[in-house]
Amino acid sequence: MADQEEPDLSQENTERLLQFQDLTGIEDMQECRRLLERHSWNIESAVHDTLNEAEGSPPVYQEPDPPPRPSMRPPPVEIQPRDQRVYTIARRNPMSWLQWTYMLIALPFRFVYTTILDIFRFTLRLFKPDARRIVTDPVGDVMSFIQKFEEKYGPVHPIFYQGTYGQVLNEAKRELRFLLVYLHAENNSDADEFCRNTLTNGEVCEYINTNMLFWAASVERPEGYRVSLALRGNVQPFLAFIVCRDHKMTVVARIEGPIQAEELMTRLTQCMHENEHNLTAIRLEREERNHTHILRQEQDAAYLESLRADEEKERKKLEEQEEVKRKEEEKQRKIENKKKIEEERKQLKIVKAENLPSEPVSDEPDTIKLVLKFPNGTRIERRFLHSNSVQVLYDYVFCNENSPDEFQIVTNFPRKVLKCGDDDQALSLSDVGLGKTEMLFVQDIADDDEEDS
Predict the structure, then answer these.
(1) Cut 0.90: pTM above it
(2) DSSP string for residues in 31-47
(3) The dihedral of CA 451, 409, 404, 395: what is its sign?
(4) Three-class SS of residue 35?
(5) Nearest Cα to 74, choosing from 282, 223, 243?
(6) What is the rounded CA–CA span in Å between residue 68 and residue 302?
(7) pLDDT digits 0-9 by tens, 50-98
């Protein structure tokens, strides 16, 4: 079957994909996308895990564990380790010779009876399976036992764990606590005696509540029956002492039979002393692993901070380079504009010089002799006709090599500016009141404009 076409990426994810490829150097785009998708498109965690794997280090960022799905089955438990302790407490009632005689005579009949009864039960189960094998409400089974226990034996008892067998196993493993499991047979006289005399004992209750978790259920209910099959608890009353050993929940001791309160606390104390080192070792290992994880996180945070600082430096460096480039371009543009303006002024001077009227002769009756003083101290003399316009005078000054770029012409006394605007172009020199001989000053107004600005 052909692979289905992958959906298009959004603009944001596409940018992340390209950035991740640049940072890791992975050429395969599909591999980059797979790594990002595995980290929920978190580019920082994806980069760090990729670099750690390349260095042979374990990944720092783990994918979030999926939420646990409810299950009827408890976590794996080692039922019969080699060093398991089994305490069997049996009743020892003295038998008379009449009882021995009756037992010997009834033995064949009892054997036949039990055989026929077993065959009948086996045949019945073929047509009608045991309802206890179908677990539908494990918490309800536990709560039902707790309610019946309190109704029959009273409120004084160890604190029952109000949850399933699997839940109490998980909590004992997570919290590194000892776990005591009790399986109760409702029609068993030994179990009734154990509950009435031992489980309701005040010292036993305080001891169990202080040192361990306590879980109990009836074997007549599906949850208790399932646990009895798993723990192989055939003798009633039945107690299992469970502890986390080598990262696996292990039944380290079994107590079968109607044990008394003092002996029960003695056996439990012995089991705790023998297995406390297992919990201590796991605690130390967890602390070391947690310390290593925190240290790794701090190192990664420092690396990220250094990476961000380098990126900020690179960004500022690029901005500075762009600013220098912009200023250089602006400077070059101003130089080119200045050259262009100068070239235009040169061309304009040539044009105006060609259009200037020639200087009249000295004996011309309608002439004016003007002395022009430039800002650099240079003086020049020239004759003009009274009929020449003020614009001709300005053009003449403009074409002179001593002329500033921007200027105005003023008289000496009384001080008056000879304006050369659009409205004054038609004014002649005689119209503005110039006599036969005049001293005029060429004033640079470009400097004044710069000071005003």
Answers:
(1) no
(2) HHHHHHHHTTT-HHHHH
(3) positive
(4) helix
(5) 223
(6) 34
(7) 766 765 555 555 554 444 444 445 567 887 788 888 887 765 555 566 7
